[in-house]
Amino acid sequence: MSGRSTFSETAYKRVATEVKEDGGSATSKGEQRHKEGKGLHELVDPKGYGVIRRSYGPFEAKGKRFTLVRGVAMLIEMELDTTGSMGGNVDLAFHSLPKTYNLLARGPLAPLSRYDVQMITAIFGDVTDNYILCRSQAEMDEQIAEQMRLMVPEKQGGDGTEDPHYGLFGAAYLTHTQLQRYELKHYHFMATDADSRKKFSVSNLKRVFGEEVLDKVRENGHDINEKQLPELKQVVNDLLTRAHAFMLQIGTNSSVTNFWKEIYGNDRVIILEDTKYLPEVQAAIIGLTEGTLDLQNLEAFLVNEAKLSSSVASTIVRAVSKIPIGAQAALENFSKLPVAGDMFADKNDLWPIGSDVADASEEIDKGATDTRKAKKNESNIWL
């Protein structure tokens, strides 16, 4: 993660210009590395940078005190199918990134405006591909786009059972967020048109995340034995303890719908005709979950802020109408969360100076301790 910067359209346009000059494919840089036999860049290799993806908001030293620069970090992870007909999803995500970010973080009704919005992009293929999974770091500036450029979507295979479950494993057990300390949740979306295998192999977990994958899982607070690996349903259940997770099904295949409803539950499977409106769907889901939007004003938000037609907006409203509305807002610390500019006596404190929140659990969790060790050589604006 880099400095104090946030995502800007000016910086994004510089990256987009480079993409255009390279031939127009958002992933040309990663594909060229693969052709040269260099493999995945460490930034998007799931085993790179310590394996665990960490999302924290920056602090700035003010004498002996620390100021929260932009608010508590809010992580959004999008895991995209890039097999077969889904092969163009990275390009779609790349070109829609400004709209996605603005809808979530910058507009007048942006549901995440009080947070430091950070994003992870993940893409999955099949176990028969060179790369089962690519997974970026948690970023908040143009590095979101830069790291998309390093991915290698192999675009192989037809419709059928695929392997998104390794990405879900990483999301559930190899992610640590600042929000966890406040017992609030981040967001995870997966978009696919197919079902998944339910079982994991130790060999593929090591292939994706490295030989020490289960050590890293334990370091992050989860006890998993390689002789008793969880199956997909348990992985998603564990993910749901830390994230508002949703499966975005592309297409209307009923067997795919039934499969994912068994895994996620009826209220977390959203059926879409195609991937065209993923930014708007994400914004709708997050706004409803955060409580900044409701089913009465959602269509107006999609028309006025997202610039959709009334017919498209109403279709999205129907698609998301059964999700757990207000689920984040109902959590205990939602209204107590520190905001940008709050002053802390120590950058590891949970609550700012002068807060009237009674903190009965000031003890820092293991994940935060590990993060301090990992960050010890970085600038003092970071946790």
Keywords:
single chain; 383 residues; alpha/beta
Detailed description of the structure:
The chain has 383 residues and is an alpha/beta fold. The protein has 13 helices and 11 strands. The chain has helices at residues 9-21, 28-35, 89-106, 143-148, 165-173, 202-209, 213-219, 232-240, 254-264, 278-290, 298-304, 310-320, 366-374; strands at 53-55, 59-62, 65-68, 73-81, 116-124, 133-135, 175-177, 186-192, 243-250, 269-272, 343-344. The strands form 3 sheets. It has a 6-stranded mixed β-sheet, with helices on both faces. It has a 3-stranded antiparallel β-sheet with strand order 2-3-11, with no helix packed on it. A two-stranded parallel ribbon has the order 1-7. Helix 3 links the parallel strand 4 and strand 5 (116-124). The protein is globular.
Strand order of the largest sheet: 6-5-4-8-9-10
Rg, Cα atoms, Å: 20 Å
- Total number of helical segments? 13
Structural class determined from secondary elements: alpha/beta
Q: What is the percent of helical residues?
A: 25-40%
